[in-house]
Amino acid sequence: MALLDAPAPPTESDEGRPDPAPPGANRVLALSTFAFTLLFAAWLMFGVLGVPIRDELGLSDVQLSWLSAVAILNGSIWRLPAGIAADRWGGRVVFTFFLLTTAVFSYLVAQVHSYGTLLVLAFLVGLAGNAFTAGVAWNSAWFPRERQGFALGLFGAGNVGASVTKFLGPAVIGATAGGTYLGFVDGGWRLVPVIYAVLLAVTAVALWLLVPRHDRSPGRGRSIREQLVPLREVRVWRFSSYYVAVFGAYVALAAWLPKYYVDTFGVSLTTGALLTATFIFPASLLRPVGGALSDRIGARRVMYWTFGVMLAATALLMMPNGHIVVEVSGNNGTADVLPFAMSLELFVVTVFVLGCAMGIGKAAVYKHIPEYFPRDVGAVGGLVGMLGGLGGFLLPPLFAYATSWTGLPSATFFVLFVLTAVCFAWMHRTVLALLQHESPELSDHFEHPHLPGRRLGRRAHFDPAGAAGTTMEANR
After folding, report:
1. The pLDDT value given to residue 468
2. Which residues of 203-242 are buried (b: 16+ CB within 10 A; e: fewer)?
3. Contact residues for 43 (Cβ-Cβ < 8 A; gap 6+)
4. Which residues form a coiled coil (predicted)?
5. Is 421 helix (H, G, I), strand (E, B) or coil?
6. Residues 288, 356: contact at Cβ < 8 Å?
7. Of 77, 126, 235, 393, which has the fewest beta carbons less than 10 angstroms from its beta carbon?
8. 3-class secondary-structure state, position 318
């Protein structure tokens, strides 16, 4: 494996006027974003439906937690095949498949009366989460390099679907409980998955008819083995670790925060869900901003800011309420020093800032992929998305264990602090290794780094914190 590797070679248009997006690209982006928003809402709907389901079926909290867990798991494990499929056959086919199958499984959720059947259907509904990597591959194929960051960020803003059920679900449940609609659909929580089923089916038809019939499929004609070759590169796994921190942690907190608010601050579940939305919205809607910034100033520089803000926010959030007790010599007394208490207001604002950083960072991670793997966005983006989604599945148990071991609810954010610190350290170590290789004559010039730089010619302008498309990157 080579130590250094250049990003994708520039096209002729990179040296002149940027290529415009081809006809139909904006329709692909608009319809795929709307479809992904619906799919994401269906994927995470058990976070809100769980409470009335628990009350009706008499479930324990452990049984209830598995409904969301299995949906998140199945929404992660097929992301690599979904990305490859979109590269080979086009996103039009793959997205229509996800919309129709999720519509069927969502409708069946409304008909169940046993926990076992519900658990199976929750797992099957989770298939919706895999549409993300299909959409990334699809939109990457339709947009030129200089617009891919914004396009992928806008598509990824469909994560806001996580808030759709939190806002609409309680209102629908409360307004329709006890009623029957169309002669066979019960009201209450059972009406919500039926509404999703109808919307998903209608969207599938609209997408199939309105997006270009002649789809773009850069992986067509290539063998699966050839498409998987880039996954051998360490760089791909490094990008995956970044995505665990910015997306896996986002999914985990979206499910964990309502309970955290209730248990730690004593608010109602409805209030906890609304406060959680103040985290979900910026973590979703700022993805286009993150993509545009990555297009403009470089994805790696954006990642430096992302991890820096996340480290500062989680460092504050992981501080436990309390004070240090100091033995005072001479009078056998004690003194309380350094008192600290996290108010609800401070917590909400800090979590909001954390959500902003995650939203921008999610787009920056995916900006790297088409830069370095323009023909393999499906496979590489699929692996990155799969591992990020699995992080969302594994982090809540880590939160629970950390809280149990320490007795501190704030240990949740200690877990995130450590995860972010590891990713930041790996990224920075890679940048330093790249700088050392590109300009070894600078390695001992700590006091006057600019003096020998004048002899470097082109290398003197190397920016290790800049775009993913800099001259060269260490493949480590």
Report:
1. 41
2. bbeebbeebeeebbbbbeebeeeebbebbebebbebbbbb
3. 71, 72, 75, 125, 126, 128, 129, 161
4. none
5. helix
6. no
7. 77
8. coil
Give dist(CA 269, CA 275) in Å, integer.
Answer: 10
Amino acid occupying residue 12:
E
Look at residue 336 in the predicted model and tell me its pLDDT: 63
Distance of CA 339 to the CA centre of its chain: 35
Q: Which residues pair with 335 in a beta bridge?
A: 326
Which of 203, 192, 177, 210 has the alpha carbon at shortest distance from 36?
203
Is 290:362 a contact under the CB 8 Å cutoff? yes
Q: Could you report the per-residue pLDDT of 166-213, keeping only the tens digit for each?
A: 777 777 887 887 777 776 777 888 898 999 999 999 999 999 999 998
Q: Which residue has the tokens 């519509």?
A: 103
| Residue 188 neighbours by CB under 8 Å, 6+ apart | 52, 173, 176, 177, 178, 179
Domains of the chain plus CATH, in order, are 20-221 (1.20.1250.20), 230-476 (1.20.1250.20)
Does the CA dihedral 254-255-258-259 come out positive or negative?
negative
Half-sphere exposure of 80 (CA within 13 A, CB side): 15
How far is the C-alpha of 29 from the C-alpha of 25, rounded, in Å? Answer: 6
Least confident range of 35-44, 117-126, 447-456: 447-456
* 175: Cα within 13 Å, side-chain hemisphere: 8
Tokens of 397: 């148990």
Q: Is the pLDDT of residue 266 over 50?
A: yes
pLDDT digits (tens, 9 = 90+) for 34-81: 999 999 899 888 877 877 888 888 887 778 778 878 888 898 889 888
Instruction: Specify the amino acid at residue 361.
Output: G
Q: pLDDT tens across 224-246, in order?
A: 777 777 788 888 889 989 999 99
* Entry pTM: 0.73
12: which residues sit within 8 A by CB, 6+ positions away? none
Tokens of 426: 């790996």
Any idea which residue has 């800090």 for tokens? 350
Q: Strands 322-328, 333-340: parallel, antiparallel or unpaired by DSSP?
A: antiparallel
